Amino acid sequence: MLAGRKYRLRLTPEQARMAEEFGSICRSVWNTGLEQRREYRRRGAWMNYVPQAAELADAKREHEWLRAAPSHVLQQTLKDLDRACRTHGTFKVRWRSRARWNPSFRFPAGNLITVERLNRKLGRAKLPKLGWVAFRWSRHPGGEVRSATVSRRAGHWYISFLVEDGVLTPGHHAGTPVGVDRGVAVAATTSTGNVHDREFTTGGERIRYRHLQQRLARTHKGSANRRKTLASMKRNMGRVTDRRADFHAQLANQLTTRHNVVVLEDLRTKNMTASAKGTKAEPGRNVRQKAGLNRAILDKGWHRMERAIRNAARSTGTEMVLVNPAYTSQTCNRCGHVDPKNRKSQAVFECTACGHRDHADVNAAKNILSAAGHAVPACGDLAVGRSMKQEPPGPREAVPVQLASQLVGIPRR
Predict the structure, then answer these.
(1) Which residue range or ranges hold the Probable transposase IS891/IS1136/IS1341 domain (predicted)?
(2) How far apart are CA 384 and CA 358, in angstroms?
(3) Are 192 and 76 in a shared domain?
């Protein structure tokens, strides 16, 4: 199967300047091609990759600055634009702003890329026009390189290899099904009673980022101080993003290794985190509360968690199922009674019909599992104050403590 391998580059000043130039040229080609497509659509006509690639070849004869970047890199930019327009629509594809877009470009010809290991910590790759570039050897690529993408994030350059590792997805998995409830107080809670959570931002980083935002508000657009402040903000948030990605990778590995089916709610995170400001004619309500909820959802990374689980499932043969999220937190898993008053608080669930008590997130995770057609195991009676397992533990298994005070899975660092 195809897999990605990402490494941190160690570019020389000249190579960093060339990479910045390649990214700027690709951004110009993207914006020019997008404007051309939109103009054709306004006239009722169509424009696709083939004529744009031919026009790009003519433009390179007239404009010398276009010849600085490799031809197949610019052609790949037009291919990415064509795919984006076909998927999202021409007028919904975004421009690549110089201030907000991180430089990125792809070398699609894997036969022109050579990867070598120099020593225990360093490797190098030969890229067209960039030459040999050094990178930190954190793992072996483990397959034939199909393409390479160079990108910059938080002030550092990275290279991502798309490799064919020759691994086939297993057809059988010996695990059991599990339901996962995503939340804002706790990142993920499973139907087996395990709670997975982690703080991604430290208190010092929050204070530092708030001060940087205040400093940014006092700078002028285009000034050197503004560029320095934005670079500091990106470095600050880059560490948070890395922690979140690490958490999602570990969680996805645990779920897909232990379970043959992972059931999630089919959540439209983009719609759920839309602003509630409204318009001047119809202003929104509870705008500050909605903004706080949006920040909490984005901080836990619901969509990235789903993507991580889907990606890890390819290696283990685990099936990922999405179910309707309606009333999963208000339904009693024991008797099926639906009532908003069932959920007494964020963590306590008590059915108003049968009196069943459980942890609210675990009850929701059980409902998510049941919605996919899988029954909750008999040993999964996780009422507050009762044992989580009825059978005796195995030689490597210990009986957990009460769920309310339990955090399982991702270690804190």
Answers:
(1) 162-274
(2) 5
(3) no
